[in-house]
């Protein structure tokens, strides 16, 4: 039901590298889980409104008042690679 | 050969002038040291949550009102999922199918929608960090991440590069007037993408569109659109197809390059942002926005035109709020000069003498001084030629116009008593010309006027001289 | 010292107030027990009592030690959410709920292991090893808050914080023979809780009894301006006092029979219902026609939200990074190396369910089922005060017995998930033993009915007389 190609496509969207073994396994497991999920299709949902939030709160807004930002050294303390006062990452193309 | 029609839609991103970011309380950061305006929320730290800035909603409503948009009583935020180092959460919080503002119109261009979202961080490619392990690197600064943005989307209503530029100028001045943004393209507080397609004239179907990204001046946008339209027409005439793609315009070389990456087509996996509740617009919020809305440039232009101002002058004054304000102050202070005369003095004379884009209120010629000068002209106490000299002096040194007129000896020779003898002397000195004038040939009148001007050091009014010549000669 | 570890939190507070117990001694006794634990329940234990213990003892919670699930951010203390991708991560801020409890006089004693990013029902999906059930160390403590439930059951802490997304407090509470409360969605701030599924996650308390549960909970909830979805509760939490259930109507879902409940669990459940009747409660059948779709809806919504919530773990600003020559490989390898199999599975499901062309069939449908389940519960709560079910279909299962069958693990949440989807509060209290292992009874009520739930649970607890001390003495085995 969800084939190898689909697994690879979704994994790429999710930025997940999968080993060959993981791809094999995922295809079977996901099919089984999605099979269960598809029991939902037994319901006629055409006239039902979706629920995005269970609590009815509207406009939980914040006043435009500043707080202290994090000291840079605190923010950087957990970063894997810092250079030139910024977070260093490899460029998009090698 | 087939004629083509150009179809352009614009997407404009405007950084809103709040104090703090869209979803956290960090001060907005532009010129600060990199990564000094961040917190758990705008850095996307684990466990941190967004809360929407009430002021950003207010500014969004102001934009909606200024663009005559339908305002949604309830709007919601979605997550737009994509991976990039400038996206700290792995998604942008934006509005998707229920935006804050719906259809509107500005300057004859239909607005599709206006919605709110958070800005991305800045990625500096390459840089001094250079290469590590044989690969190039980038460095990310999250100060900008989370800056509130309004995205304004037009319908594909625009038919030329010029119209696009005209619309953008009106939009910019409108946004500036309502005070929601610095709208400075060079600083990135106003950014514009253009969707461009062509179709045979008369066709109603839309052709394949391309997207021109991130052009940083109105001039480049117009140039970019022209270049892209020419490229598309060239392709179609050669029997080739326009491909849907994103393009970058290089104003240096005038060339267009495709930004198409090897990535698969984007699949943003939008879904309602579960961390935020819907935004409901209350009557109080609408009241507040309405009260904060000043007269808009388009309305001001129309009002100035109704006063009799030339359309170009009206637009010039109305599209720059500080000019409009200066003009209105001067017009109100003037007791004899009419609004048109004051407008012309501001637009045609004063502005020529000031630095481009400067506010005349900051010059040495306050509005009431300009009004006084206009009154002197209206009272014929100084000629327009004299007034220009007075203005030169005022711009350079400041001062009271009447005193400057006096000091420079530019007081107009107004009365007949003074002018009649001079005119008579002119006719006497040029008998042949006097003869031609008497015979009905008015062409050499300038010679007489020139003589009088010379004699009066330019203080005489040309029209008055003509009148006296005619009466002297019995015409 | 072992006798002071037998005190409930309320008893310890009374002893402190009577001058018979020093909070520093209590802290040290728990600290020593925690440092020596061999259940794999704790990811971090404090070296010493907080420096401000003297000030804390003046507060309502008197400096009592607190165990906190790993996924709550605690400033300067490892907060890893059970994941290798956050191994050793030290947050620069503290979660609101933890901060509130510290302000109320809690001393941070330990952080507890959990299923990675709260995805699981056994605490086996933890990058730092599984946690064992103190009743039988060959069995799981439940999950995802299994470290917290095991710690409380084993007497490593008087009480603990957990989180519940689809059952992650109630199920481990049931399997460890303690009390666990999942509050109304929005009652407690989520700020600082490393997110699994934002529209479902709620913090909640674990304790040995209902009184302690209410006591801890009283200092957790409240509106937080940093969480737009938090509302707090309309009324303060009142310590429960009910002895009887006269005038209370309990609803038992009609289909509860057919849902694969183990016989021992069924027997304990039936006995608990009889106890409720004896206390004066009326038992009535209620219909929840869409409850059976709960698991399917949940396993769309939760992974979908998780796939997005976990996108921030990209090796840029914090956490694990696997170096690679280009950006895409850095992302994919970091996430490959940092996430465990269950997390990957759910990211894949969630990404699939949100992807172009599938959104309506999966995500939108699941949200609609959520509406139907809310309606079912609204109708039921118009008829009964509370709904009762077994918390789980079975008792604690052996380690490893369900790890190869994700779907069977998901069905652990069968009874807990519908209330999560509707955002209503539910508690699990121990109601007896089956095969020598604890059985949980779930009591759920309408939104904001925590006081009613706690009161009914207290009355039942008194009558049921469950003895949880077995686990603190080293288990039944």
Automatic annotation (TrEMBL), chain A:
> Which reaction(s) does its UniProt entry say it catalyses?
L-aspartyl-tRNA(Asn) + L-glutamine + ATP + H2O = L-asparaginyl-tRNA(Asn) + L-glutamate + ADP + phosphate + 2 H(+); L-glutamyl-tRNA(Gln) + L-glutamine + ATP + H2O = L-glutaminyl-tRNA(Gln) + L-glutamate + ADP + phosphate + H(+)
Look up the EC number in the record and give it. Answer: 6.3.5.-
The free-text function statement in the UniProt record for this protein reads: Allows the formation of correctly charged Asn-tRNA(Asn) or Gln-tRNA(Gln) through the transamidation of misacylated Asp-tRNA(Asn) or Glu-tRNA(Gln) in organisms which lack either or both of asparaginyl-tRNA or glutaminyl-tRNA synthetases. The reaction takes place in the presence of glutamine and ATP through an activated phospho-Asp-tRNA(Asn) or phospho-Glu-tRNA(Gln).
**What are the alphabetically sorted keywords of the record?**
ATP-binding, Ligase, Nucleotide-binding, Protein biosynthesis, Transferase
Q: Which family does it belong to?
A: Belongs to the GatC family.
Name one molecular function that GO assigns to this entry.
glutaminyl-tRNA synthase (glutamine-hydrolyzing) activity
The upper taxonomy is:
Bacteria, Bacillati, Actinomycetota, Thermoleophilia, Solirubrobacterales
Q: Outline the subunit composition.
A: Heterotrimer of A, B and C subunits.
Protein's name according to its UniProt entry: Aspartyl/glutamyl-tRNA(Asn/Gln) amidotransferase subunit C
Record-linked PANTHER family: GLUTAMYL-TRNA(GLN) AMIDOTRANSFERASE SUBUNIT C, MITOCHONDRIAL
Broad enzyme group:
ligase
Region annotated Disordered sits at 74-94
Q: Does the keyword ATP-binding apply?
A: yes
* Lineage top rank: taxon: Bacteria
Q: Which InterPro entries match?
A: Asp/Glu-ADT_sf_sub_c, GatC
- Tagged with keyword Nucleotide-binding: yes
TrEMBL record, chain B:
> Which keywords does this chain's UniProt record carry?
ATP-binding, Ligase, Nucleotide-binding, Protein biosynthesis, Transferase
Which intervals hold domain Asn/Gln amidotransferase? Answer: 325-473
Q: Give the GO biological process terms.
A: glutaminyl-tRNAGln biosynthesis via transamidation; translation
Enzyme class per UniProt: ligase
Record EC number: 6.3.5.-
* Organism superkingdom: Bacteria
- Database matches in PROSITE patterns: GATB
Annotated InterPro entries? Asn/Gln-tRNA_amidoTrfase_suB/E, Asn/Gln-tRNA_Trfase_suB/E_cat, Asn/Gln_amidotransferase, Asn/Gln_tRNA_amidoTrase-B-like, GatB, GatB_Yqey_C_2, Gln-tRNA_amidoTrfase_suB_CS, Gln_synth/guanido_kin_cat_dom
Q: Which Pfam families match?
A: GatB_N, GatB_Yqey
Regions annotated as coiled coil: none
Leader sequence segment: none
SUPFAM superfamilies xrefs:
GatB/YqeY motif, Glutamine synthetase/guanido kinase
SMART domains from the UniProt entry: GatB_Yqey
Q: Which reaction does it catalyse?
A: L-aspartyl-tRNA(Asn) + L-glutamine + ATP + H2O = L-asparaginyl-tRNA(Asn) + L-glutamate + ADP + phosphate + 2 H(+); L-glutamyl-tRNA(Gln) + L-glutamine + ATP + H2O = L-glutaminyl-tRNA(Gln) + L-glutamate + ADP + phosphate + H(+)
For this protein, the record's NCBIfam families field holds: gatB (TIGR00133), PRK05477.1-2 (NF004012), PRK05477.1-4 (NF004014)
Indicate the family of this protein: Belongs to the GatB/GatE family. GatB subfamily.
Q: Its biological function?
A: Allows the formation of correctly charged Asn-tRNA(Asn) or Gln-tRNA(Gln) through the transamidation of misacylated Asp-tRNA(Asn) or Glu-tRNA(Gln) in organisms which lack either or both of asparaginyl-tRNA or glutaminyl-tRNA synthetases. The reaction takes place in the presence of glutamine and ATP through an activated phospho-Asp-tRNA(Asn) or phospho-Glu-tRNA(Gln).
Q: What is this protein called?
A: Aspartyl/glutamyl-tRNA(Asn/Gln) amidotransferase subunit B
What's the encoding gene here? gatB
Automatic annotation (TrEMBL), chain C:
Q: Which Gene Ontology cellular component terms are annotated? A: glutamyl-tRNA(Gln) amidotransferase complex
Task: Name the keywords, alphabetized.
Answer: ATP-binding, Ligase, Nucleotide-binding, Protein biosynthesis, Transferase
SUPFAM superfamilies tied to this protein:
Amidase signature (AS) enzymes (SSF75304)
Q: Name one GO biological process term.
A: translation
Q: Spell out the family assignment given in the record's similarity comment.
A: Belongs to the amidase family. GatA subfamily.
Query: What does the protein in this record do?
Result: Allows the formation of correctly charged Gln-tRNA(Gln) through the transamidation of misacylated Glu-tRNA(Gln) in organisms which lack glutaminyl-tRNA synthetase. The reaction takes place in the presence of glutamine and ATP through an activated gamma-phospho-Glu-tRNA(Gln).
Q: How the protein assembles, per its UniProt entry?
A: Heterotrimer of A, B and C subunits.
**Name under which the protein is recorded:** Glutamyl-tRNA(Gln) amidotransferase subunit A
Q: Which organism is it from?
A: Paraconexibacter algicola
């Amino acid at each position: 039901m969800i084939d190898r190609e689909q697994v690879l496509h979704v994994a790429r969207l999710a930025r997940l590298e999968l080993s060959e073994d993981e791809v094999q396994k995922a295809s079977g497991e996901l099919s089984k889980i999605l099979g269960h999920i598809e029991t939902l299709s037994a319901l006629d949902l055409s006239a039902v409104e979706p629920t995005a939030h269970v609590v009815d709160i509207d406009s939980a807004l914040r006043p435009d008042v500043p707080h202290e930002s994090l000291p840079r050294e605190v923010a950087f303390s957990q970063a894997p690679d810092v250079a030139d006062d910024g977070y260093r990452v490899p460029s998009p193309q090698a | 050969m087939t004629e083509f029609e150009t179809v352009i839609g614009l997407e404009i991103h405007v950084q809103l002038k709040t104090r703090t970011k869209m979803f956290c309380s960090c001060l907005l950061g532009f010129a600060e040291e990199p990564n000094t305006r961040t917190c758990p929320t705008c850095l996307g730290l684990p466990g941190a949550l967004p809360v929407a800035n009430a002021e950003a909603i207010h500014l969004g409503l102001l934009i909606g009102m200024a663009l005559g948009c339908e305002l949604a009583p309830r709007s919601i935020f979605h997550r737009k999922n994509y991976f990039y180092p400038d996206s700290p959460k792995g998604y942008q919080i934006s509005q998707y199918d229920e935006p804050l503002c719906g259809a509107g119109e500005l300057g004859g261009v239909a607005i599709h929608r206006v919605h709110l979202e958070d800005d991305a961080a800045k990625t500096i490619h390459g840089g001094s960090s250079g290469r590590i392990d044989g690969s190039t690197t980038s460095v990310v600064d999250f100060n900008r991440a989370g800056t509130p943005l309004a995205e304004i989307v037009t319908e594909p209503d625009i038919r030329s590069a010029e119209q696009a530029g005209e619309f953008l100028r009106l939009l910019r001045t409108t946004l500036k007037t309502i005070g929601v943004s610095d709208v400075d393209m060079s600083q990135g507080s106003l950014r514009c993408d253009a969707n461009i397609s062509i179709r045979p004239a008369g066709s109603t179907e839309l052709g394949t569109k391309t997207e021109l990204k991130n052009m940083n001046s109105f001039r480049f946008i117009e140039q970019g659109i022209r270049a892209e339209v020419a490229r598309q027409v060239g392709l179609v005439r050669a029997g080739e197809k326009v491909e849907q793609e994103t393009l970058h315009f290089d104003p240096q070389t005038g060339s267009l390059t495709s930004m198409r990456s090897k990535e698969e087509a984007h699949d943003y996996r939008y879904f309602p942002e579960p961390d935020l509740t819907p935004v409901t617009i209350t009557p109080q919020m609408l009241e507040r926005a309405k009260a904060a809305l000043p007269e808009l440039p388009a309305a001001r232009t129309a009002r100035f035109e109704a006063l009799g101002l030339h359309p170009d002058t009206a637009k010039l004054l109305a599209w720059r709020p500080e000019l409009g304000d200066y003009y209105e102050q001067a017009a109100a202070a003037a007791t004899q000069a009419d609004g048109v005369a004051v407008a012309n003095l501001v637009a045609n004379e004063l502005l020529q003498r000031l630095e481009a884009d400067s506010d005349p209120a900051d010059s040495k010629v306050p509005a009431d001084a300009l009004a006084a000068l206009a009154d002197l002209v209206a009272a014929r106490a100084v000629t327009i030629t004299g007034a220009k000299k007075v203005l030169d002096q005022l711009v350079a040194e400041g001062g009271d116009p009447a005193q400057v007129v006096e000091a420079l000896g530019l007081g107009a020779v107004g009365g007949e008593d003074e002018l009649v003898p001079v005119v008579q002397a002119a006719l006497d000195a040029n008998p042949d010309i006097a003869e031609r004038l008497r015979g009905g040939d008015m062409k050499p009148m300038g010679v007489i006027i020139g003589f009088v001007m010379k004699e009066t050091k330019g203080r005489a009014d040309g029209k008055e001289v003509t009148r006296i010549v005619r009466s002297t000669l019995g015409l | 010292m072992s006798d002071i570890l037998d005190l409930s939190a309320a008893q310890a507070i009374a002893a402190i107030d009577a001058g018979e117990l020093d909070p520093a001694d209590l802290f040290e006794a728990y600290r020593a027990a925690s440092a020596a634990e061999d259940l794999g329940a704790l990811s971090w234990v404090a070296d010493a009592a907080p420096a401000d213990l003297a000030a804390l003892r003046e507060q309502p919670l008197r400096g009592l030690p607190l165990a906190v699930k790993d996924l709550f951010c605690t400033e300067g203390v490892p907060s890893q959410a059970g994941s290798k991708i956050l191994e050793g991560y030290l947050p620069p801020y503290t979660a609101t709920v933890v901060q509130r409890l510290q302000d109320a006089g809690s001393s941070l004693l330990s952080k507890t292991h959990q299923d990675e990013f709260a995805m699981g029902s056994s605490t086996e999906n933890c990058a730092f090893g599984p946690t064992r059930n103190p009743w039988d160390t060959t069995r799981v403590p439940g999950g995802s808050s299994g470290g917290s439930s095991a710690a409380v059951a084993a007497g490593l802490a008087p009480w603990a914080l957990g989180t519940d997304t689809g059952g992650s407090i109630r199920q481990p509470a049931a399997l460890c023979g303690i009390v666990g409360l999942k509050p109304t969605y929005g009652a407690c701030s989520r700020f600082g809780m490393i997110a699994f599924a934002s529209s479902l996650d709620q913090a909640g308390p674990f304790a040995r009894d209902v009184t302690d549960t209410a006591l801890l909970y009283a200092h957790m909830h409240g509106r937080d301006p940093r969480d737009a979805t938090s509302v707090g509760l309309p009324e303060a939490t009142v310590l429960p006092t009910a002895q009887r259930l006269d005038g209370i109507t309990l609803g038992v879902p009609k289909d509860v029979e057919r849902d694969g409940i183990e016989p021992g669990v069924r027997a304990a459940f039936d006995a608990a219902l009889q106890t409720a009747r004896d206390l004066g409660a009326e038992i009535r059948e209620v219909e929840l026609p869409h409850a059976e779709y709960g698991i399917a809806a949940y396993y769309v919504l939760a992974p979908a939200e998780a796939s997005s919530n976990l996108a921030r773990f990209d090796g840029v600003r914090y956490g694990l990074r696997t170096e690679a020559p280009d950006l895409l490989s850095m992302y994919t390898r970091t996430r490959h190396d940092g996430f465990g199999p269950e997390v990957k599975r759910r990211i894949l499901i969630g990404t699939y369910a949100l992807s172009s062309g599938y959104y309506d069939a999966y995500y939108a449908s699941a949200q609609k089922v959520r509406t139907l389940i809310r309606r079912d519960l609204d109708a039921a709560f118009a008829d009964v005060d509370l709904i009762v079910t077994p918390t789980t279909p079975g008792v604690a299962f052996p380690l490893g017995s369900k790890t190869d069958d994700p779907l069977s693990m998901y069905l652990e949440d069968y009874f807990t998930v519908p209330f999560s989807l509707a955002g209503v509060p539910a508690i699990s209290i121990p109601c007896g033993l089956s095969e020598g292992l604890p059985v949980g009874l779930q009591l759920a009520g309408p939104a904001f009915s925590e006081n009613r739930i706690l009161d009914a649970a207290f009355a039942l607890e008194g009558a049921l007389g469950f003895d949880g001390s077995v686990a603190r003495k080293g288990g039944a085995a």
